[in-house]
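Researcher: Structure for this, please.
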Amino acid sequence: MVDPEAADRARERLAETAADQGWAATLDAAWPALAPVFSASPYLFGLARRWPDMLRGVLEQGPDARLAQVLATTEALAGGADEIRAPLRRLKAELHLLTALADLGGAWSLDHVTDALTRFADASCVAALAAVAHDQRERGKLVSAPDDPRGPVPGLFGLAMGKHGAGELNYSSDVDVSLFWDPDRVEGALASGVEPQRFLDRLTHAFAQLMQERTGDGYVFRVDLRLRPDPSSTPPCVAAPFALSYYESVGQNWERAAFIKARPVVGDLQAGQDFLKALTPFVWRRSLDYQAILDVHSIKRQIHVHKTGEGLEAAGANLKLGRGGIREIEFFAQTQQLILGGRDARLRSPRTLDALQALTAAGHVTEEVRLELSQAYVELRGLEHRAQMLEDEQTHRLPVEPERRRAVAALAGEGDLALFDAGVEGLLAGVNARYGQLFEGEEDLSSPYGSLVFTGVENDPGTLETLGRMGFSEPATVADAIRSWHHGRIPATRTARGRELFTRLAPRLLTAMAETGAPDAAFRRFGTFFAGLTAGVQVQALFLNQPALFQTIVGVMAHAPRLARTLGRRPAILDSVLDARLYLDLDEDSGVVGQMLADARATDFEGAMNVTRRVHREQAFRIGLQVLTGRAGADAAGRGYTALADGILEALSEAALREVTRQAGTMDGAVAVVALGKAGSREMTAGSDLDLMTLYRAAPDAASSVKGCSADVFYVRFTQRLIAALSAHTAEGELYEVDMRLRPTGSKGPVALSLSAFEAHHRDQADTWERMALTRARRVWASDPDFGRAVEATIEAVLRAPRPEVDLAGDVRAMRDLMDRERAPSGFWDLKLTPGGQVDAEFIAQFRQLEAARDGGPLTVSTVAALADDPVPARSWALHQAVGQVLACAFDDRPDPEGEPQGLRDLMARTAGVADFETLKAEMSALRAATRAELERLLPRRDGESARAR
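Model: Predicted structure, token format:
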């Protein structure tokens, strides 16, 4: 006995009433059996204290006779909801008291207990539906006869599901009832003008409320309506034709398993039978292909099985859903029923113990296994009942607290808590071991982190714990999303094959996300991508068959929102991932640019814009993937991005010239496109814009053949078309932002300039900063090769033209000081503007080039090559460029890597060639200080006012 004092107090309170009513001798005789029950269960004593006549009836009449009386009284209830609300709750209280006493006293077996609970649940559902229908009939909305043999609302029927349907209700169980209606039968039962769906939804809510509303008398049963088709998006009462269509098209194996236990319980029972008959081909398939069988197996394989009893503890054990619990025994039977029951009707029993017996009789389960699992099932259900009897809680867990667990042990007849715990742990370990032998050796669909179960309509507690261990901040949201994908709510899982593949993919997906260190971001971005797929079989099969590629894509989702957004917006880009050239060295000619040029030449201006955008999207993704996987270094990535831009400039320059010629006629002249900045130096990143300049040559009186446009107008229009082609957003996306401000006239003059005007400007009035920009000028395209060479020669001549009056070092320093004042760095990770960062190194490089031009030395557009004699700035620039390539691939904006996942920080360190992230920061700081010192040495600030940045 848990608490003798509590038992004594209980006896005192009951004895007085028993003496007054003349049944004290009955109480005394029964007290040795009642004392341990009332001392352990406050709930049961509360029922006896409040309604002592119920206790007297059980003790004097016996549980069987009293049960018959309770059921008869329940079936005789009549009237509306208000009339039956209180008596129905008192009848439930009496049922609970007599069932518990008959169970704990050994008068009833488990089957007898669950049968009593189920029969009362059936009678309660019938009474409740009749009462709410009575109320609607009183309001004039329901016109069918009260005694219509088709039920209170002809055509409306409810199926008992789960343990209710199988006659296996537990002590504090809710009832799973799915309500459906047959449109052909219901409409005739309603008054004119009553809309059936709205009427039935309200009736369903009223039914559930009458059953589960808590009043001073308690409640009857909690009602769970969620085992209907896709409960998050369907009304509480579902039209039968829709339900049949749903199950035939997107019904899942766990729903097939649920219908093994389904039976009509309330309403139009014949309509219910007809519905279940129509569902027979869905539930009991006569033939299953290999993939469908594997998908049935997945119901079992989502649960993480341990080869030993390690980690199994009685304290807090979930007797239903935990390892070694009731669910594992049910799944053991149901998965085999689903596979074998289509051809053998003997295996279709809704009751778990009967199903195990049938499987054994048919030779599918050994007698040893059947006996062990059956005994474990009975013991676990008994323990579950006793845990619920403490406080009438819908719990399946043994208490963590020793005192409360000792109370459960007492109700189970065990006075030694240590022996009780050891027995429970042995029981769970035995079930889990047997469960692990089912479909042994097949692909595991759990995770190293634990079970991942997404069957049913509510979140599995063990799965939520697993997702929490994986690092997801909102496990329930993740579980809901996975379950919705299993329901076929996105195109990728709308087919049976797509759902079968996703069943296998889901655990790998979640595990891979956990291993990125940023599972929330990875899941959010993958969700966008996955929902955007128009079909999912090919992609999911690809991921399953190429795990390395799959890991890479998940890593992109976690660490690279830029690439993840590309995948999300354009899932078809994965086609390029299948290309054998995906990991081809970026310096090798893949043939893609050549094909792009041919395709662009074969179409019109708009077509060329779309062709280049598709290629840019795929190739930028390819380059980014190589950078993020460490296959391509910063230099190779810079050349790759620039080669892609060069090809696009060639394609669109040709297209723009063709378009202007189509509109204005031919022009006797030539035009060239010059790249500056990082495009000119072949050092572009994923986020680089295009610094451009267009130069042309034509006779002073030249005019277009159709509209007579002058050369300046013609080539301005060409440039405008080119800018639009490069920067406009189309259905295929965008390419580059274009910056023309480095041309001689800046942002104020025409966007196209004649070569002679360019030469004159630099001869007569160019400032030093313009010469600095020209050190990275590179002719990318020309309509005439000879003119292209002339442009190159002119740029070099301009750079080498003597300027004895200019203080070169002073002007370069003045320009750097001006940038310091007007463009302050945003923080440590502003790689360009921070003192000693890329701009400082580039200013030194450009100063060196202007010196070389002046002195007749070799010229180069490469920053690193220009810094050949300055190793510290060269190393600083290269390090910052490497980090910048990774960040530009991963992000659209300027992130703070300190707040990003460890995986990204490690990648940055590896790309930069250092040991770890902290070393990277230290190296960057040291190189910045040294580079800034070198700038101060080479370009000292002049005394007094800085030199003019000419």
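Researcher: Any notable elements?
Model: The mean pLDDT is 91. The beta strands are 156-161, 175-181, 223-224, 237-239, 263-267, 669-676, 690-698, 738-739, 752-754, 778-782.
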